[in-house]
Every structure is written in structure tokens, then in C-alpha cells.
Amino acid sequence: MPELRKDPVTGRWVIIATDRARRPSDFVRDPVTIVGGRFCPFCAGNESKTPPEVLAYRDHGEANSPGWQVRVIPNKFPALRVEGELDRAGEGIYDKMNGIGAHEVIIESPDHFLTTANMTERQIEQVLWACRARILDLKQDIRLQYILVFKNHGEAAGASLEHSHAQLVAMPVVPKGIYEEMEGARRYFEFRDRCIYCDMVRQEAADGDRVILETDHFLAISPYAPRFPFETWILPRRHGSHFEAASEREIPNLAWVLRMILRKMDKVLERPAYNLVVHSAPLRQRELDHYHWHIEIIPKLSKIAGLEWGTELYINPTPPEEAAQFLREAGLL
Amino acid sequence: MPELRKDPVTGRWVIIATDRARRPSDFVRDPVTIVGGRFCPFCAGNESKTPPEVLAYRDHGEANSPGWQVRVIPNKFPALRVEGELDRAGEGIYDKMNGIGAHEVIIESPDHFLTTANMTERQIEQVLWACRARILDLKQDIRLQYILVFKNHGEAAGASLEHSHAQLVAMPVVPKGIYEEMEGARRYFEFRDRCIYCDMVRQEAADGDRVILETDHFLAISPYAPRFPFETWILPRRHGSHFEAASEREIPNLAWVLRMILRKMDKVLERPAYNLVVHSAPLRQRELDHYHWHIEIIPKLSKIAGLEWGTELYINPTPPEEAAQFLREAGLL
Questions:
Q1: Mean pLDDT over residues B93-107, rounded?
Q2: Do A296 and B277 touch (CB under 8 A)?
């Protein structure tokens, strides 16, 4: 019997359609393979082919030369640009502003063939520190309201270059989806005087059915009302609204959790393409009692049917309790 | 220079990134081709291979035999089921209900190879009447809150069978995206005492830059803040909140408009896959002053980058003024 489940933060109802494909092997899988062989501007030695770096963690060498482990550069084809004044205007019933912002690429390693799942914990940790450092720097630009940190892995997930990289888009507005999460979490806090994500961590840890793994600092779960099969959330146990305020203990632990989750997905779902997005409070908000930063990972398994656009009606064939069990029980490759 | 534009109904900001691919020929196109050659349960003569029809418009023949022009059947693998009592329950912080509803398929023609764009106006009109009739019938079931009518054309848009068909999902909740549209339109009405879509029709018709075509009853536009390249909306000129209350004059005119738009897309975008969704007010709402039913069509051109999930940050390379011009000026195939 299918079931309708409501995401407690956004209020989105999702259909869990249990009569359809549900097990990992029921999905048409298309493993991400790093082919190489073509010129790659992200590889060590090709630094001159990218815009000059804005940050690099390196053992040796000068800026824009080899010797780095993680390198951050402006996107060569940026969605938003840093130059100019922020200019707001109306056109009758419509509103617009010019595209002020920043769009940067975090090259996660000098090695073309190394996927995030196959990196060392230490390497992933450096990537996380680099993201944090860029947010703290860009946050000083008071025109910016939000910085979205994300990663597309595999062509099916929208990655245009196969060399492992994350991205950040800094923008003068708050994305609608984040705004809605904030509003939903605020309403819950007004009603109960508790953070909804803290309640989620407590309930999921006690229940256990949807837990994939837990550490001292994080809980990785299949959420109660997932839009997609094997959608996975990583929630910090300690309340905090901003990713960039994660502690020196949390960041290394997060690197360990991310590596484990990505390796489990590689094993259970056969090296899937995926999207990873960091959800964090807007830059101009002080530390908030009602919002709780977290990471959402969506492996690209089922075709989007198109129904989702505008309606946000998702039909998910895999109950999260089953997805969590597959991932929880998977050994590592 | 990129530009940020705000959708006036939902408040969603979209990046119009004018430095990227923008013209029809810049997209990797993958024309939808009807291959045939395999057994098709939707073809005339195979009626016994589907669940029994719930509606058919036919010249001759008995129920579940050939002779029909349009045939409506329950989906063999329904996302929701009509049997049982609607049962709501909580699980700690979560809410759920059992999957009560209906999921039907509207087979648009007995001919396997006929796409909607290549049908006669009269045939498309019959499909629209069939959708309307099914809504009016299902609306009597007071457990149902919403009926979503949609069409996925082409495998890339999620169609699993190539024989032209639309679908409807009737459900006991209102989809989040529709709820948000209703709320946005309500806020505008409270502020201005006018329907925002009526204002949109007036402003777009007067301005003309984003108009693709107009008739006595409808306006087809590239919306001001489109999420996707060549996204197209069809708005009725006459205010009305429910699609099923469209008049006997509007339905034939809508068939003409739909046929024209789909043929223009076929020509300009080379027979693209697309998703079409009817946006209408919830079933239990009386006729509303603030909401205005309409149709949204999204051709499947660019890869979804994954950023959109949860954040609803869309980066659209094609300004709607350019998309509208291409479609407006296209002759027909």
C-alpha cells in the first residue's frame, strides 16, 4: 500500500509508492567512470589555464603552480559576477537586480582520477576547510546574502568536468528552498520552543530504522519523507545554524562521515552520480536557535518525471527504512 | 551581465546567465522519435491488456474494444490507490497518511505514432474534454483534495511508454508547489485587490516582448523569471481558478493554442522531450478571486545540475525575451 509522508520542515508531502522499483538493483545504473585522456584545466601543471587561484593549500611551489592539495579558483564561466554595484529595479509587477555575486570552483585534489569517495579523510577535511575559509572571506562582502556550497558528481548529475571539484555560488538573495526551510523551522520553534532538526536527531537516533551511521558529532539518515531513492542527510548533533561555524572537532569528523557515506553509496548503488548540497543559514543572520545546518546528498538513480517542476509532487519508490538498511549494512569497497 | 529575476507569484529568484548557451542550437538536442515495433498496451486492438477503461470517446464498438478516439484507464502501476479509508497518523514529529487517491492514464489517440503536436485540433480538444470529465467525476470523492493533470513526452522527460498519453494523479493533499502558488497569489490579492495572473496577462500583452502568441481566449508567454530555457506558460485571459470550469469556447481555443505551441517547439527545438502540467486551484476551494489556472510547459533541454533540489536556485542561460522571439517567429513544420 502506498503511503503519503510529510516532510516536517517544509510541509512537502511525498508519495512512497512501494509497488514499484525499490531495491538498488531495480534501478538502471550507470556507474560514473573517470575516463581521462583529454586536456583538463584542473590537473596539476595546468594552473595557467584557469583564472588565478583565490586560495590553495600547498606543500611547496608558488601561487598558480603545482604543489597544492586543494585549489580554489573563480569559475571561468560564472553564473554571477563580483564587479559592479548592486542595482535593484522594478518592471511593472516584476522585480530584478543585476547579477552580483561570486562563483568559485574548489578543485578537491591535483589527481584527475581521484573521486571524493576514494580520497583520504585528510584530503576531504582539507576540502571542507577550504570551503569554510572561502565562506568566511566572501561573507565580508555585505552585498551577499547567501553562499551555496555544492558538488555535482558525474555527468548525469550535471558535472561538466570529471576532475573532482565542488562549487560555491555567493549571491545577493536567499534561494527559495532555503528560505522555506528557514520558515518551516521557525514555525516549529515558535510552536514548540525547540529546533526541529534537534528533535529529528533525537527521534532518529532513538528509533534507529532510518539511521545509516552515527558518530560523536554527526548522524547520517535516510530522511522520513525523502524525495528520491537513497536520499541521505548528514546532521550535526550539536545545534548550530551556520556551516562555517562548525568546530575544529566537527570538520575532521564530517570528513570521515562523508567518506563513509560516499563509499557505501559507491558499493550499494554502483558508483552513482550524485548531488551534494550544504544547507546553512543566510550570511546576515546571527546564530539562530531554530535553524540547523546540514548536508543533503541525492544519488541520481531515477529519472525525474517532470511532475516535480512547479508542483513538487515526488513519487519515491524506495521507503527510507529500506534504503537506510542497505547503506547501513554495506561493508566498504 | 547576468541578471537576477524574481517570479512574482512564488518569490523565487532565478539567475539569467546570459554568458552561456542560449540559442536553440547551443543545446545538445535529442529529438524524440517514435520507434514502435514493440507490443504497446495503448494501441487500438490491445484494450484487453490494460485495466478496464473508465471513460472513452468512441465512434463505434463496445467498451474495451477498438473504435475509440480517446481512452482513459487506471494506471496499471498506480502511485496512489482508491481502495480503503483515509487514515491519518503521526510518528513523533512526523505525519503520514495512507496512499488514497487515483492515478489514471489518458490515451490521446489510438495511433501509436501520432504525437500531440501532430494531432488535429479536434483530437487535442477531445483529450482536454476527457481530462475535464475525469476531474468532474473524481471531484465527487470528498477524500480528494487535488487532481494533477500532466503529460511527459519523450523518455528524457520521464515517459515510460512512447504512445502519446497524459496522466492524472488525484490525491488527498495539495502539492507543495501549488500551495505556494496559491499563497503567493493570495498575498498579492490582499495587497492590490487584483489577481496577479490577470495583471501578468495585461502587462505581457501590452509589452509584447515575451508573448509567443495570443488568441481571443489565451496568451502564451515566456514567463519573466523562467527556471528553464524556453519554458512556456499558457494563461487564459478570462479569470478563473479551476481548469475544469473552462468554458465551451475556451476548450477548443486551448486545443488550437496547445497545438501551435507544441509545433513551434518541435520546429525551433527539434522535437524536444517536454513536461506539461496544468496548474489549477484545489478541488475543495470554491471559485477564487486570487488564483488563475494555467498551463506550464518545460522542454527538456539543459541537464538539471542538482543545485535545484532543495535550494530551488535555477540558472537559466536563455533570456525569455529571446526564447519568445524564436518561438513567435517560427513558422510551422
A1: 96
A2: no
Q: Across the interface, do A310 and B11 touch by the CB < 8 Å criterion? A: no
Distances (CA, A) of A159 to A95, A104, A109, A165, A181: 31, 14, 16, 9, 26
Q: What does chain A come to in residues?
A: 333
Distant-in-sequence, close-in-space partners of B317: CB < 8 Å, separation ≥ 6 = B16, B17, B18, B20, B21, B22, B26, B229, B302
Q: Which of B13, B97, B180 is facing A173, going by the closest CB pair? A: B13
Cell numbers at residue B239, please?
479569470
Give the model confidence (pLDDT) of B151-193 as tens digits: 999 998 889 899 999 999 999 999 999 999 999 999 999 999 9
Domains belonging to chain B, first-starting first, are: 3-84+97-329 (3.30.428.10)
Edge-to-edge, what's the strand order for the sheet holding B13-16? Answer: A88-91, A94-98, B3-6, B13-16, B314-316
Considering only alpha carbons, which residue of chain A is nearest residue B231?
Answer: A309
Quick check: A171 and B309 CB within 8 A? Answer: no
- Do A3 and B98 make contact, defined as CB atoms within 8 angstroms? yes
The ipTM of this complex is: 0.92
Chain A residues touching residue B310 (CB < 8 angstroms): 177-178, 181, 277, 279, 296
Read off the pLDDT of residues A166-215 as tens digits, 9 standing for 90 and up. 999 999 999 999 999 999 999 999 999 999 999 999 999 999 999 999 99
Could you report the per-residue pLDDT of B42-70, keeping only the tens digit for each?
A: 999 999 999 999 999 999 999 999 999 99
